[in-house]
Amino acid sequence: MKVVLDITRLLRRSSQSTPTGIDRVELAYARHLLGSRHYQDDAAFVARLRASTWYLDAETVAGFVDALASRWKQSEGKITRRELVAVESFLDLTPGVLTTLDAAPARSSLPDMMPPLKRLLSPVNLLPRLLRRRSSKGAVYLNVSHEGLNSINGVRSMVRGHGLKPIYLVHDLIPLTHPEYVRPGDAEKHETRMRTVLGSAEAIIANSHHTLDQLKSFAERNDMSVPASIVSPLGIEDEFGMDAPVEAPAHPFFLTVGTIEPRKNHLVLLHAWRALVEKLGPKAPKLIIVGRRGWENENVIDIIERCEKLGNHVLECNRLPDVHLRRLMKQSQAVLFPSFAEGYGLPLFEAMALRVPVICSDLQAFRDIAGTAPRYLDPIDGLGWARAIEEYARPDSSSRAEQLQALQHIRMPRWSDHFSIVDRLIEAVAAPAPAPLPAPSWRPATSAERTRALISAGERLEGARPSFGFAAAQPHSSTR
């Protein structure tokens, strides 16, 4: 069972100091294929560079992936001691409680990506293309990053010329459903990507039922059919587990995590905080905004930098290593996600994995995984957000206590859960004559683990005992 993973994005992004969410997904797939006994010597890798498809030596890919994972992991610790001291001071924490967690690595100690890149792309490691084409005939081709899907003809030529069976992971359709939140031209590019997916896929992986529903709607509008599809939620890193308890801070605070850009809707929080400060004065809770500055955020930055009323109650923290983020999440009253649109929403699920309350926009992408546990609000209901934050800030908050209780009985999906579904899909597609899959119609509420070789999104398992539960308690009616 030959599987070929496209790692074009990892090569293109290897010079960056920090990964995006999609970078993390492609990296997780590469590490799974390299480390799983399920594939052994059957994992292969390709990259599409300069309009050509290059087959890459798996052993050298492993060295490249290890170096890249190490670099990205160490790079997240580049926050300075001064920045951590500022967070401690802002929250009135015991001096050193954050600065002593983990020492940031010296810049010179970060892995240099040039040596593994040179080895990976060396002519010695690029086997003859005709030989690789023959050995990959009938292999499953995995593209999990939307990379290179802007060229319908290019993908079709590669698939047909190399005899591949494509499986695509679809992350979201935000550029098509909310074009106002992406850069000019991105909507047209994404439409081409989705047409490529629908026109060439043997099967599709969606990260949520919401994403799959949107893809089906796009296909219907464009008179296209949807190939066999499954839903497999993305995984949370194991480090977002039940860490040791932390002491409550002297002053209640909240976190929001996400790039500062219009789609994330930081404005509703800032206006809510202004109202809280005007009402409660020094007793108003505090807010830490964790995320890099994105695009078209001038109005948000102006309020953060120039609003004197918020000066002692709002702190912008552009970078925060996971070890510090986990600690602050567990100390916070709740983590806030007022987004207008999301493809998945991994930071929300990371917070829930830590048993931290969340207040979030009422989006189906959130409900698909989080179920009824969070406090849901309309993203434009500023007064509603102010009331909920004030309520959760109280030490005797019954709503917060109820959510904490609900969080004790859920488990967020891990990467092992994601791949247990994906591996079965790959097996079915790789089979000489895979059985047709039923159209999806049922929405699972309690199981992300399957007990058959392949269960399509929509096929219910009667009498099957789920091996782990999502947060949702009911079937749903309808993604740093």
Automatic annotation (TrEMBL):
SUPFAM superfamilies: UDP-Glycosyltransferase/glycogen phosphorylase (SSF53756). The keyword Cell wall biogenesis/degradation does not apply. The keyword Transferase applies. Residues 251-370 form the Glycosyl transferase family domain. It holds the Pfam family Glycos_transf_1. GO terms for molecular function: glycosyltransferase activity. Keywords: Transferase. Coiled coil: none annotated. It comes from the Bacteria. CDD domains: GT4_MtfB-like. InterPro entries: Glyco_trans_1. This is Glycosyltransferase involved in cell wall biosynthesis. It comes from Ancylobacter tetraedralis. The lineage of its organism: Bacteria, Pseudomonadati, Pseudomonadota, Alphaproteobacteria, Hyphomicrobiales.
